[in-house]
Amino acid sequence: METGNERVGGAVTVGLLAAWAVHDAEELATVPGWLRRNVPQLRSRLPAVPEAVWRRAGSVDRRRFAAAVGVMGTVVAAASAAGHLSGGRSAFYQSAVDGFGLHGLVHLAQAAAFRSYTPGSVTSSVVVVPYALWARGRLRRAGVLRPARPRDLATGLAFAGVAMAASHVIARRLLFERVQ
Predict the structure, then answer these.
(1) Where are the transmembrane segments (predicted)?
(2) For residue 121, how many C-alpha atoms fall within 13 Å in the half-sphere facing its CB?
(3) How many Å apart are CA 76 and CA 86, to the nearest integer?
């Protein structure tokens, strides 16, 4: 068993980037088409959502989505690097692991609410959530895991949401599209 003085291996820290890449490959392959097919049903099920959101969601193309995935990849790579360099102690890395795992749970909740497949739900169940639980266990055994307070978990999920939204804005700017 590892002690609190040992570093966490690369499988744990770089594993975040690997798990993210598998998950986002699923999303990259499915999101644009799934949105085009399902925005009408979502619009009727969620009438409180502003019409501008539905227009934007229905117009997401593969090129823009791929650019956003690339931007998000830099954030995840930075978190993985911070984790690797700190032996898993980095608050940035640990928040990213928490946010990634909670992001996976959101995907599973979306699929349950939709009562059907939603992009990201397959890899959330077999990669994202298992990776996050495994990584947290390894960090705990190494003695470097920060206690998971509800506030910290909310921060991790909020960080994931903000990073995702920012990646889409940056992608639109990189592609010289007008950002509203």
Answers:
(1) 65-85, 116-133, 153-171
(2) 14
(3) 15
Residue 161, token pair as written in the block: 């949401």
Report whether 82 contacts 94 (CB < 8 A): no
Structural domain including 82 reads 10-174
pTM given for the model: 0.88
Token readout for 166 is 């920012």
Count of the separate structural domains present in the chain = 1
| pLDDT tens-digit readout, 55-77 | 888 888 889 899 999 999 999 99
pLDDT digits (tens, 9 = 90+) for 96-151: 999 999 999 999 999 999 999 999 999 999 999 999 999 999 999 999 998 878 88
Residue 154, SS3 per DSSP: helix
In a domain, 179, yes or no: no
Question: What integer pLDDT is reported at residue 1 of this predicted model?
Answer: 42
Give start and end residues of each alpha helix (H) in 46-149. 51-58, 62-85, 91-114, 121-123, 129-141
Please state, as a whole number, how many other Cβ atoms lie within 10 Å of the Cβ of residue 37. 10
123 within some domain? yes
Q: What is the dihedral of CA 72, 78, 81, 82, to 10 degrees?
A: -130
